[in-house]
Amino acid sequence: MSNPTGYPELDALLPRLEAIPTLDADALASELIAVLGRKNGALTEALKSVASLPLERRKAYGAAVNRLKASFEAAFVARREVLDDQRRRLQSAGLDLTMPARRRWLGAEHPVTRVMDEIVEIFRGIGFTVAVGPEVETDWYNFTALNFPADHPAMDMHDTLYVDAPPIPGEQGGRLLLRTHTSPVQIRAMLESAPPVRVVIPGLVYRNDPFDASHAPAFSQIEGLAVDEGISFVDLKATLVHFAHHFFSPSTKVRFRPSFFPFTEPSAEMDVECQLCHGSGCPACKGTGWMEILGCGMVHPAVLEYSGVDSELYTGWAFGMGPHRITMLRYGIPDIRLLYEGDMRFLEQFVPGNPRSVAVAGPGSHSA
Ligand code: DAH
């Protein structure tokens, strides 16, 4: 304990003098200014006040202030030496305390996984179950049973890798291939259980596509299928509009355009109002105000028959959508390759609770 000076305003500084050997470099620098700083230093102020004291007190008080100042100066110098010495020793031991610490990463789901889970949940909420099928598929499930006529031009978009392996005994079809869509799982679902059928089918599919800003040779799809007595295009429309309103927002506009798929008749494509410009037209929607999100249609009777379903009794509707694309639409991601690269600077924007994250739940979140 330092000796009391006999002056309360000076003694009030003694605990600070004693704390100096505990300060780190930054605290030491600011304490030096707070005590001895030329402008507002606590001791500098005391020294200045000496001149205005009556002569008989001036000498003794001045001496006390100067002694305390000398003690502070000595303590600052001593502490600085200790800190310098510590730093030198750590540096020569190969430790650099000025090096930034390594960041701790928060694990989280990939944005495409989140979107797929969210889509599946919306359909589960209205009575659909989840089915999956093999990524290595036979040509029968991938094409024949889906009513692709051999060598039909519709197959041009479905070029894929064929697997050089003998046919699987007891399995329909000859050649094995990497499936080009999740639609073959429609056939598997119907062969497995008689109507009513209501399934959603998430999975990866493969195509001979370039890896560019809007294509990837492996990407996700979610298929949907509903088969029952008396199912009509009204069910298709109402269900897909329900989906769009829950996934995007309750006020999102949708439209259906006629299209062609071998396995549906009639066939359509569904567009949603562009999520970036909300319909006014922007580069992302090529000025149309609309974004295509899925193909759909009434299941072709031939497909029902291939799957052992009586097409006189039952009807059905189906859809197929691309969650990679939908993730891009929702978050305004300009290049699909960002979703494959695993670059943390991109991905951490989607970590819930991260201050830099985008609105991960999305505007139409149903998980209220
Ligand atoms: N399988 C189609 C494709 O990959 C997408 C599709 C369109 C699936 C219409 C469907 C459907 O079930 O009804 O291009």
Structure notes:
This protein is an alpha+beta fold and 368 residues long. 35% of the residues lie in helices and 18% in strands. The chain is built from 12 helices and 10 strands. The protein has helices at residues 8-11, 14-19, 25-36, 42-50, 55-92, 111-124, 139-142, 184-192, 233-247, 301-306, 323-331, 344-347, and strands spanning 129-130, 136-138, 162-163, 176-178, 197-206, 218-228, 254-261, 264-273, 290-299, 315-321. A 7-stranded mixed β-sheet has the order 1-5-6-10-9-8-7, sandwiched between helices. The protein has a 3-stranded antiparallel β-sheet with strand order 2-4-3. Helix 3 (25-36) runs antiparallel to helix 5. The longest helix is centred in the first third of the chain and has 38 residues, at 55-92. The chain is elongated and about 120 Å long. The two termini are 62 Å apart. 30% of the residues are buried. The model is unreliable at 361-368 (pLDDT under 50). The site of 3,4-dihydroxyphenylalanine (DAH) has 11 residues, from strand 9 and strand 10.
